[in-house]
Amino acid sequence: MAHPEQWPYAVAGAFSCCAVFNAGFGVAGAIAWGSEVEPIVILNLPGGVISNMVKICLCVDLFLTFPIVIYPSIDLLESQEAIKALMPPSGSKEEYWSKNLLR
Description:
Elements: H1 7-33, H2 49-79, H3 81-86, H4 93-102
């Protein structure tokens, strides 16, 4: 980043843009459909093959993106000294399986 001191402003701007976009999308949906809209958007789809395909695709998407979302938390846990103290010696099969169990 050319100007690291501007990082907080860039993050705040990005979050603000996302919040405004999401709020605008919600308001537009509420104006267009009123209180007939289900809180879970997929439930608004008519039953049938298309609806089931969308639900299956959503499940696959959640299943495949979960490791990407959870990785930073696991990486943080593995770097903590308390967790390291509980781990077996480095390079052993026990360490390999302990890390996999944690993950």
